[in-house]
Amino acid sequence: NAAGTNDGMQEIDAVITWVDGDCPKHKAKRAKFLALGGHPEAATPLRWEQNDEIGYLLRSLDLHAPWLRKVHIVTDEQEPPLGGLSRAIRDKINLVDHREIFRGYEEYLPTFNSVSINSVIHRIEGLSDRFILFNDDVILVGPVLPEDFFIGDKMVLRGTFGGSMVEGILYTHHRRNAANILGISPENFFRTAHVCIPMIRSLVEEFYADNEPVLRANISHRFRDERQYLPSALSTHLAILADRAVVREKKDWHFITAVVCQSGDYDRIRKSFNRLRRRDVKIACINDLSSAKKTVPSVTWRIARAVEGNEIGAVKYILKRRVFRTVFA
């Protein structure tokens, strides 16, 4: 019984960062600060777009990770649509407003920067020491166990060591900056796969207790900035340095990149989404669902089928969500 392995000191939470970028209030706040300028990559609408990805993610946690203790959803004065989800998963959800995790740092709100937000997620009240960070474009497409993310007191890492870090994009700058803070050389840098990431709250807290100015500098940017570091990369390398990390040898994830989603290539997109049904794939990330849908409208069906594991379950889930959105719109 997977749930039986997760008690007492073994509690594991999920943390999801989510925003509805189409919300008029959020759009107005965002426009006000965007007018002040910034890095072009930081202003792409894709960063705040949502296509009900969180609905698929929550459904996947309900089906494939029932052992999770709590699911913390970090938002900015918003609430995601929870209709069509089971009572079991809804009872686990804790909505966390930015004001909670930025307490004492309110001068940096509002923020529209996931790098800044992820820098303070360890400040969620009641968060378990071991937790898994999800972006809302990540889903589970197969059963997972606690040991897929933590073995004892060690994080399970997905990715590879070394490789080029000079790619000229913000994400690379952020990773490289995290490595520089800890004195990690390029060959010893761990390139985390673009999926959910296990983290250890106490390791992050201990680091910031001695390096509070580092935290303050990182959360001071309302939009992504080249000077920032990636909090998950910092957390990963803190665990590696503390001998509290192991690398998963067998790949069990699939990343559908923005390049694929935006390619306009019907066959390429369809084949990539079809891989979600492979038995060896448990975790997936879909970088730009909106663009993929424009070329292959059935991709949402393919996601539902992968999460549910069969066509009947996919139909039932889609109809539930559709009815809820129609009735409560």
List key phrases describing it.
14 helices, 13 strands, single chain, 16% strand, disordered N terminus, 5-stranded mixed sheet, 39% helix, 329 residues, 3-stranded mixed sheet, alpha/beta
What is the share of helical residues? Answer: 25-40%
Q: Determine the number of helices (DSSP H or I, runs of at least 4 residues).
A: 14
Amount of beta strand: 15-25%
Q: State the separation between the terminal residues, measured CA to CA.
A: 39 Å
Runs in which pLDDT lies below 50 for 5 or more consecutive residues are: 1-9
Q: What overall form do the CA principal axes indicate?
A: globular
Query: What is the topology, as strand order, of the major beta sheet?
Result: 3-2-1-4-10
Order of helices and strands: EHHEHEHHEEEEEHEEHHHEEHHEHHH
- Count of β-strands: 13
Mean pLDDT: 89
How does the helix and strand content classify structurally? alpha/beta
Largest sheet: 5 strands, mixed
How many whole angstroms does the radius of gyration measure? 19 Å
Short description:
With 329 residues, this protein is of the alpha/beta class. The strands form four sheets. The protein has a five-stranded mixed β-sheet. A three-stranded mixed β-sheet has the order 5-13-12. The N terminus is likely disordered.
